[in-house]
Amino acid sequence: MSHPPVTAQTACRYRAFLAGLLSILLTGCSQTPISFLDPQGPVATAQRHQFGLIIALTSIVVLPVLILTPWIVIRYRYGAQSAYRPRWGFSKLADIAIWGIPFLVVVVLATVAWRSTLALDPYRPIQGDQKTEPLRVQVVGFDWKWLFIYPDQGIATVNELVVPAHRPLALELTSASVMQGFFIPALGSQIDVMNRMVTQLHLEADHTGEFPGKNMQYNGKGFSHQRFVTRVVDEQTFHNFVAHTGEGGMTLDARMFDRLMAQNTGKTLAQSLARADVGSNNDGDGKGRGDDAGRLRFGHLPDDLFNDIVGHVSPDWASIPVASTGKANDASSSQEARP
Amino acid sequence: MNHWAEWLLGRLDWSALPFWDAIVDPTTKNIVNAIIASGAGAMVILGGLIAIGVLTWTRRWRWLWSEWLTSPDHKKIGIMFIVIALVMLARAVIEAVFMRLQQAVGLGGGFLTAEHFGQLFTTHGTIMVFFMAMPFLTGIINYVMPLQIGTRDLSFPVMNSVSLGLTAAGAALVMVSLILAPFSTGGWSGYPSFTESAANPGAGVDYWIWAVTLSTLSSTLTGINFAVTIYKKRAPGMSWFRLPLFTWTALCTAILMIFGMPPLTVATALLALDRYLDFHFFTADLGGNMMNYVNLFWAFGHPEVYILILPAFGIFSEIFSTFSGKKLYGYGALVIATMAIAVLSFTVWLHHFFTMGQSAHINAIFGIATMLIGIPTGVKVYDWMLTMFRGRIRFAVPMIYAVGFIILFAIGGLTGIILAVPSVDYQIHNSLFLVAHFHNMLIPGLLFGMLGGTNFWFPKAFGFRLEERWGRRAALCWIVGFMLAFFPLYALGVLGMPRRSAAFFEPAYLPWTLAAAVGALIILLAMLLLLIQLWVSIRDRDTNRVPAGDPWDGRSLEWSVSAPPPEYNFPVIPEVHSRDAYMRQKENGRGAHPRPDEYTDIVMPANSAMGPIMAATGFLIAFGLTWYEWWLVAAAGIVSLIALVARGYVRQRTRTIPAQTVRREHEAWLERVSRIRPVSRREEQTPANQGLAMSPLEGAIQ
């Protein structure tokens, strides 16, 4: 909620265009955008447009059913003395219409689907407004939390994806557990994440703000709690975030990795870390200990952690850069790092 | 001692009791869940005890055995299939109500544990597909199809009884899982690697595997039986393009069963090898790949949805035509459309997992293939509308279901096209939008079809009409309840709510989940009204009798025989000269019930205990496998093998009904019919309707 004005303004402008049901569906200007009906990036915007277009096209075939069926059953009800043709069972003209019109609609729909599917292919990089390199993030789905590794920045987070606005995002995803579905509705497409496999997803955010992200594929009792926050921030805030996390974040060592592999939600993991006096990490913008979202931040992690997880290889723990205090996960060191 | 218990019980122990968690860890939530789960288990036990008590008290065990369980009569087997379907429907609807209530209070929590909720959506889906929908449509096809094509039984009557037995065993296994818990939490689709033993070592997934395996084996046999019967046993003159449309859909469904069911039998078998013998078909490591399961599952799963919907299409075709008093519009187009749907249904399975990372071209091709199915389906809808056009539409209960269906189904078609576009599916895949869509197809489509068909053919099967007023109330509650329960789910899906959520954290969802819960309660009321309808109908059966067998001025051959029909269906096999064979017979002036020149001896299949034996051994093998009771698996397996071999030595496989008996019964019925006054459609819902329709020549419709 650190940048509500832009979000609210945009949402309100879009609202003016949405008729009837859609405007009811929208969650209101003051709330977090939770759906592609209130899109926060080019992919979701295109999807909302396609959603409306497909409804309009399909309605060519569906609306006559909704309108004519009540008319027919009332007009030709038993007792109404309307025309009665019990032996009439075929009309060439009607048959041409009922085969031809749906066929033509499907031809148009197929064209739309072909083009939009190729355009919005999750694997296809997004051409950003600025000529910036996409931000690479590696996503690992655990039971029941998300780990985000920033390979170029050398940091990682749990349950919190911090990205700059207007910069394309290139995500590589895998699962350290069973199949899961990675999804940020306000930004765009979802993609499945699977053990030993890597999928890709490209997104971009147009606006700053906080958007919920979730798991769409049931994976056990913590499923509903496997949520994360997508914080879209401006470029400067992102740099600060990277710097602070790199300096003050915890170390993702073998013990911490075992904790991540264990079945727990981000919240219970954060609580158990706090009890063990390990996890008092804080980025300085008001998200403190006992965060319900279970966010964690790591400033030191082994090289190539993502590919080791994909390949079921033990990560190279020796490659972790030595932290300043040598006791990196000590609560006090984290406290010191707080800006 | 302990060793013996382990040998005897396998891994079954106290923790299987549904209230065990509450004893070990008595938190409020666990206690609430234990009460709900134990209540469900107690209902199963109570239901079983009441059934046993009533049978014993009325001394009907022998009757049950010889008249029903061992009967090879397709009509009785059909009715037993439908009884299983209705019992399972009741359970699965109650589960659905609990899920909707959980989500109504699910903002941040709810009253069910996540584990319990997982079992609820898994059993709900598994039951509704495999033990409600499949037995329901199998039962109706079983009953009606041989009567429509003018034959006396299926090609393989004993195999039909075995099919029933296997389905019953699977259903019993799911019911037993209420008493000896848990069931799987992996959803009706049971995706690995969640269902692998690494993630879920308990008995739950094994219950699911064996229940589904029993069901798929049953349905494969059923498909073979139906297809062969339609190919080989049609009455003389019943050429392909004279088949009633319901029989056409039954044929397409049968073909889909033959080719669509084995992939799932294979998939669950491979999953069982993974779980029991440490194979690695679908595991993450050692070369396994869960994607293979997903493809196999949907190679079954997509044809399956057309297995479910096509018979309903057939039923609606009969209903629209009969209650509009009019020939079916576009018979040829409907046949072509049905066949086209059946073939195309094998070409679209990938649309169930657009998000699994395959190339955009593949996604787009499967999306377009999916849309193509929309064309024949749309044609069918318009054919039904044109069937009503310039008809005389009578709003009997089946017609209310049918009109509700046609409107709601069009909306479901719209949302189906939305889901078929991969780039939009990326937003709504695995969300409640998907849940709303397939319920939109299966409740107004399949279930309304089955309930409409039950109201339509009930007087044929039992000799009296179902009560109208309570039937109408039930139908309206189904329609309203469906809309209220599932239209909000579309909104929730668009708002990004995942399916299978035990809890949610977006306050914006709350109004919609509350509305859906109200809808679920109305559906529960509709179930209650169905029961009342049945009870009132049985109470007033003497005023609603239709012995002449044609209460709706029907068009196909099943209406030409008495209600209920004799066990041999037709005293003399009819000769067919046109489409709508019975209507033509009524129109041509020779009378609705011409007296045959001569009667011949009728050879019928003799009773066989194979069905009940396969049911018992199938259940015990599955139960033993689930709980690792190997002695039970071996013993039941040996018994079923012995039974199979012994069946080969049975000499007396048929029973002959002498021509005199047939003549006597038929003449008695004709005598009775001759005293019945033919009624016009104006008197359709009155006691005057004893099942003899006024001839069309005398203006029966006007």
| Structural domains of chain A: how many | 2
What amount of the residues of chain B lies in strands?
under 5%
Query: SSE string of chain B, helix = H, strand = E?
Result: HHHHHHHHHHHHHHHHHHEHHEH
Specify the CATH class of the largest domain in chain A: Mainly Beta
CATH superfamily of the largest domain in chain A: Cupredoxins -  blue copper proteins
Q: Please report which band the strand proportion of chain A falls in: under 5%, 5-15%, 15-25%, 25-35%, 35-45% or over 45%.
A: 15-25%
User: What percent of the residues of chain A sit in helical stretches (DSSP H or I)?
Assistant: 25-40%
* Rg over CA atoms of chain B: 25 Å
Indicate the CATH topology of the largest domain in chain A. Immunoglobulin-like
Shape estimate of chain A = elongated
Number of helices of chain B: 21
Oligomer: heterodimer
Decide which structural class fits the backbone of chain B: mainly alpha
Secondary-structure-derived class of chain A? alpha+beta
